[in-house]
Amino acid sequence: MAPPLVSVPMKKKKKPSLVLTLSAAGLLIGAGTLAYWLLSQRQISSGDLLVGANIIPGDALFAVSLTTDPQQWQKLRQFGTKETQAELDKNLVELRDRFLTNNGYDFQKDIAPWVGNDVTIAILAPATANKAVPKPVTTNEDAASDQQSMVMVLPVKNPEIAKNILAQPKTLKQGKWIDRIYQGIAIKQSEGQAGENFSAALLDGRFIVITDSPKATERAIDAYKNQTSLATTGGFADNFPKIANDQPFSQFYINVPTAAKIAAASPNRPIPAQVLAQLQNNQGLAGTMTLEAEGIRFKGVSWLNPNSQRVLTVENKAGQMQSRLPAETLMMLSAGNLQRLWGDYVLTSQGNPLSPIAPEQLRGGIKSLTTLDLDKDLLSWMKGEFSLSVIPSSPKEGSPDNFRSGLVFMVQGSDRNSAEASIKQLDDVMRNQYQFQVQSAKVAGQPVVNWVSPYGTLTATHGWLDGNVAFLVVGAPVTDKIVPKPNNTLASTIPFQQTVPTEPNPTNGQFFLDVERTVKNFPLPTLISNQQSLLDATRSIGMTSAVSDSRSNIYNIFLALKKVSNTTPLPSPESNKSNSAR
Q1: CB atoms within 10 A of CB 413
Q2: Residue 410 near residue 469 (C-beta atoms within 8 A)
Q3: Do residues 339 and 383 make contact, with C-beta atoms less than 8 angstroms apart?
Q4: Angstrom distance (rounded) from CA 89 to CA 85
């Protein structure tokens, strides 16, 4: 199989339920701050960096490397279902035919003998994206610089073959090849070709650089010679090695501030100026994808702009909540220091229309429904690890089956006296304002408090675990699954151990989702196209994250996937031609 060399980017109104608001608070804090995690935040050998990082201009918008190893591509095709395999094959064939077959090239005959283990494709932002005020486009040259362009870097393992293929390229269907020199580098350039015009150059006999515009070729040569490449961009050389791998399937890099500037200029959904200013604190987001026996692993790192005044607090004190949850838990999201996490979320989400929820909106809702101040009365004592989990119920005979699962919120408190005062105030509000029965009870000999609605249905239960961990259960009555501490915990299950990464350790947050069991028992909202086929191909998802240092966060994500029992070869270019001719 020939792997592709490029990827183409291009009734009556009712008062809101207090119980739902309280349970949503934990969910929204967790989900919102998770989005923040993903966007915020020695001497280096060439093997530690993205292939071609010393050639790609430092202001590149996006870069991705892909393996050229056919065995790795075949391994990728084994994951998933017949449906996902067919979709992947369709995309691979389209890419292969567009960039190889249609131009007269065969990967195994023309490319494989000289190309290295990985190739990189980068998207360069328009020149105006790096300027405060875009200049009017008046000439063809200006127009070219105002467009996104592509740079492809192909490492050379056999210089003689590479020189020959560059010296005698395939005949163009339209136009002709011309030769020119820039900074002492010979460039082979197409001219008079409708649509795509390519330039190619061999740098120091080690890299063939292919671009879709003459200006992009010159920018790449300048970056290489003047050492203004991605490898010298602030924070890149310090952070990319944290996720390096000897045999990656793919690696990527996103220039966050440049991407934000381009998005801000979009007429459809521009980013507000205050949000754009906040995003300038961030510099890069990078990741490595590797194929393992049972799935796909992603290691990621995000880092702040070296010139930013903002710093991260290095505090990794999570990783205990999975030992308090039962084995049948379907989903768990945990993180350390809820108070600090919320503060970081507030800092990056104020005035941001893309945030899951506005901080002031949640604060106002809590205040109006409970009279409690979210920051002073609740988050002030929530300085330890927290978790939000979904635990399926075990319906008892004769009991109403109102809920199929319980939403369980746990948080390690730093001041139990303050916590108990706030919780007592909540009990009073439930009793006096909402006419709930607030009943003291015991579960396995431990005291709990039940909130029972006027209709007699158990609505919620709260209490304490191990003296300083407060919990709230909403929905199905699953308190007996966490009190006392379960013998068979989520942490001890095979799916959790095989899915949730053990590194980084110590950790500042973890996530686990049993996709198979969740999809079987609960309908999920549609968030992306082809969602159901992707869910059908996935067994479980796990993530572990940590604050690496005062400027960066690291992530380790694993997707446990199903496998296709019998994979068929990709359709050959010849069979594609014969099929299209019918």
Answers
A1: 22
A2: yes
A3: yes
A4: 6
Q: How far apart are CA 547 and CA 542, in angstroms?
A: 18
Q: Burial level of 420, CB count in 10 A (0-12/13-18/19+)?
A: middle
d(CA 574, CA 386): 57
CA–CA gap between residue 301 and residue 296 (Å, rounded): 17
Question: d(Cα 90, Cα 4) in Å, to the nearest integer?
Answer: 12
**SS3 call for 40:** helix
d(CA 57, CA 36): 28
Token pair recorded at residue 257: 């501030």
Q: Is 217 exposed, middle or buried (0-12, 13-18, 19+ CB in 10 A)?
A: buried
Report d(CA 466, CA 464) in Å as an integer.
7
Instruction: Give the closest residue to 71 by CA, choosing from 138, 133, 2.
Output: 2
* Nearest in space to 19 (alpha carbons), one of 505, 457, 514: 457
Task: Please tell me whether the peptide bond between 506 and the residue prior to it is cis, using omega within 30 degrees of 0.
Answer: yes
- Give the model's confidence band at 375: pLDDT under 50 very low, under 70 low, under 90 confident, else very high: very high
CA angle 170, 176, 177 (to 5 degrees): 70
- Give the Cα-Cα-Cα angle 531, 537, 541 (nearest 5 degrees): 85
What does the alpha-carbon distance between residue 136 and residue 494 come to, in Å, rounded to a whole number? 61
- Say what angle helices 359-370 and 416-432 make with each other, to 10 degrees: 60
The band of 303, judged by pLDDT with boundaries at 50, 70 and 90, is very high
Residue type, 85: Q
Helix (H) or strand (E) holding 119, with range, is: strand 118-124
**Stretch (H or E) spanning 367:** helix 359-370
Instruction: Determine the 3-state secondary structure of 199 from DSSP.
Output: strand
Is 269 in a helix, a strand, or coil?
coil
pLDDT of residue 53: 95
pLDDT band at 18 (very low <50, low <70, confident <90, very high): very low
Burial class (CB in 10 A: 0-12, 13-18, 19+), 1: middle
pLDDT in tens, 398-429: 445 567 899 999 999 999 999 999 999 999 99
Tokens of 280: 């300038």
Do 431 and 425 contact (CB within 8 A), yes or no? no
Contacts of 364 (CB under 8 A, 6+ apart): none
Q: Where are the beta strands (DSSP E) in 325-457?
A: 331-335, 386-392, 405-412, 437-443, 446-452
pLDDT given at position 19: 39
Instruction: Please give the sequence-ordered ranges of beta strands (E in DSSP) within 144-264, or none if there are none.
Output: 149-155, 176-182, 185-191, 199-203, 207-211, 250-255
pTM of this structure: 0.84
Burial label for 454, CB within 10 Å (0-12, 13-18, 19+), is: exposed
